[in-house]
Amino acid sequence: MNVLSARSELLSPSFCLKSLGEKMPGLEKGTTVWRMRVKDPDRFDKFRVKEITEGVKITLGRVKGTNRWIIQNYMFDKQRFKTREQVNNWYEKHVKSETRTAMDFNVWNEYRKMALQAYMEISHVS
Q: What predicted TM-score, i.e. pTM, was given to this entire model?
């Protein structure tokens, strides 16, 4: 390993998270399920599991010190999802596309707010 690659490894977000003791997000292979980790489980004090569709469950975690529940991970049954590619395809189709749509909607709302604010600043109501 040369000096530049060692330096970039030290500055990478994954190295920083590992050094802080955080569990890395990503896909893990278990004995009966594939687990797509979204958040570190140490951030939560309670968990609930909910089936969202056949073969796919989510683990909801309550954020420590709050009453807010968010998704901690997705679990994919190995009977239905035999390969890593099948899991990634489902995740891309159902989760990432929804996230992109929500982000596009937020960007559009921000644009609308800025346009309305600009209009209000330049217009005079008599």
A: 0.60
